[in-house]
Amino acid sequence: MFLEQGVTPQNHFYKYIIGSLIIIVAAFVGQVPMMVAVFFKAATDHKTVPVTNEGLMHFFDPNTTLFLIMLSFVFALAGIFLVIKNIHKQTILSVTTFRPKMDWSRVLFSFVLWAVIGITTTWIEWFISPDHFEINFKPIPFLILAIIGLVLIPIQTSTEEYVFRGYLMQGFANLSRNKWFPLLMTSLIFGLMHLFNPEVTKMGYGIMIYYIGTGLFLGVITLMDDGMELALGFHAANNLVGALLVTSDWTAFQTYSILKDVSEPTFGFDVILPVILIYPILLLIFERKYRWNNWKEKLTGDIN
C-alpha cells in the first residue's frame, strides 16, 4: 500500500529530518531571486526596502509578486525529488501513488470537481451579497496572471502535497508504524504552516479549523485512495481558481483576479462550512466512484 512503500529497514526517521532541512534550504534558495529583485527595485526607484510581509506583498506589481513567490516552490520541488532519490533511494512514483503509474484521470476528476464547486459557490456568494464584491477584471494583467497561474500554481500545490501527503506522511509512518499518527501529524503541521497568513490576523485563530480540516481531508483521500492523485487535483483547483476568481487586500496573495472581495472579513459558519459539510460530501463522491472500503484499517491500521 501507499504508506508501506516508504517503510523500509534503511529508511530511518532521522533521514526525513535531514531531508526536510534540505528541502527548507532549497526553498530559501528559491527566495533569492525575490530578494535580488527587491534590492534592485529599491535602489533604482530610491525606495525603502520593505521590512514586513505586507510591505513585501505590495512592493511589486501583483503578477510580479506572484511569479517571484512561486519560484521558491520550483526550487523546493526539485529539492524534494533530489532527497527522495538520493537520501531515501526511492522513486518519485513510490511517494506519489501505489498504482503502477500516475493516474491522471484521478487528478483531472478531482480538479474539475473542486473547480466547479469553487466557481459555483463564488457565484452564489456574489449573487447573494453583490455589495461584498467589486469587478476587478483587467484583460491584459488577467491574461498574464492566468499564464503564471497555470504554469506555477500547480507546482506550488504539488510541492505542498509531496511534502505533506507524500514525503512526511511516509516519514511519520516509518516512525510510528501505524496510519493514524502520520494522518494527524501531517494535518496539524499543514494547518500550522498557515498560522502567519494575514487571514489569521483578520479572522482569528478559529480559521485554523479550516486549515487543519483541509489538511485532514487531503490526508484521508490520500490514504483511502492509496495515492496523492486526488489531493494533487483538489489542491491545484483550490489555489488556481482562488487566484483567478477573487482577491482582496487582506489575503496572502493579491492578484489581478476577476473579482475583489471588499467586505470586512469575519470568522463565521461559512468559513468552516467546507470542513463540516462539503468535504464529507466529497468523500462520499470519491467513495462511490472509486469503491473505497475498509475505512478503519486504511486510516488507523498498523503497518507491519
TrEMBL record:
User: Which GO terms fall under molecular function for this chain's record?
Assistant: hydrolase activity
Give the Enzyme Commission number.
Answer: 3.4.-.-
Q: Which InterPro entries match?
A: Rce1/LyrA-like_dom
Q: Which Pfam families match?
A: Rce1-like
The source's domain of life comes to Bacteria
Chain ranges of the CAAX prenyl protease 2/Lysostaphin resistance protein A-like domain = 143-241
Signal sequence span is none
- Name the chain's protein: CPBP family intramembrane glutamic endopeptidase
Organism (species): Flavobacterium polysaccharolyticum
Its lineage reads: Bacteria, Pseudomonadati, Bacteroidota, Flavobacteriia, Flavobacteriales
